[in-house]
Design a protein that fits this description.
Layout: E1 14-16, E2 22-24, H1 31-39, H2 48-61, H3 66-79, H4 85-89, H5 93-99, H6 109-125, H7 131-136, H8 157-168, H9 176-185
Antiparallel strand pairs: 1-2
Helix pairs in contact: 2-3, 2-6, 2-9, 8-9
InterPro entries: Adenine_glyco, DNA-3mA_glycosylase, DNA_glycosylase
GO biological process, one term: base-excision repair
GO molecular function: DNA-3-methyladenine glycosylase activity; metal ion binding
């Protein structure tokens, strides 16, 4: 058993909100992050479009907070044509220059260029099964069952392998840590703390970490 403070914070890193639900501290106070945690994070994402968007946003997040990316997500979607791979694949240098002047998004030339490169790589993957099939082929047989924040991994054997495979197809900003964050976000692994109300929310995993 873990102890709780008067504020509802447990020593396992969970915080019990006014609604009686336990969430990790990062999702407990900010309304936007709480909504994301309760409705999106860890819910399975399938299909080329959704996975391409998540890869791009995880790449933009590198070195920044996820809250920053969430607050800019609508602007990102507008700037990158709702992350339509065909549309973004057609971007040229002038589009990258134009996006570098758009203060609503993260103005990092390497990340913007990678979004274009990754769109082209996504289109090319259609000839060999597609992005969705490639990414989901790295779902492990078991998922972590962390009870405390200290037990949360940041990479895995599968995220290292996925990173290597995507790089071999020309993707950029897809390092093992970024790919593990992607795997968490789209339900490939479940790293919700065992005491969280969202544990096993994907429907793909049992609370103990075994596959359904």
């Amino acid at each position: 058993m873990t102890s709780a403070t008067a504020e509802g914070r447990h020593d396992d890193g969970l915080v019990v909100g006014s609604d009686g639900l336990a969430r990790p501290a990062w999702a407990a106070t900010d309304a936007l992050l709480r909504e994301y945690y309760d409705t999106e994070w860890g819910v399975p994402v399938r299909g080329e479009h959704g996975i391409y968007e998540r890869i791009c946003l995880e790449g933009f997040q590198a070195g920044l907070s996820w809250a920053t990316i969430l607050r800019k997500r609508a602007a990102f979607r507008e700037a990158f044509h709702d992350f339509d791979p065909d549309a973004v694949a057609a971007f040229g240098d002038s589009d990258v220059d134009r996006l570098m002047t758009d203060a609503r998004i993260v103005r990092n030339r390497a990340k913007i260029a990678a979004t274009v490169t990754n769109a082209r790589a996504t289109v090319a993957l259609r000839a060999v099964g597609g992005l969705d099939a490639l990414v989901w082929s790295f779902q492990p047989e078991v998922t972590p069952a962390p009870r405390t924040l200290a037990e949360l991994p940041t990479t895995s054997t599968e995220s290292v392998a996925l990173s290597k495979e995507l790089r071999s197809h020309g993707f950029r900003f897809v390092g093992p840590t970024t790919m593990f964050a992607l795997m968490e976000a789209i339900g490939l692994v479940d790293t919700h703390l065992v005491g969280s109300h969202r544990r096993a929310c994907s429907g793909l995993w049992h609370p103990d970490g075994s596959r359904r």
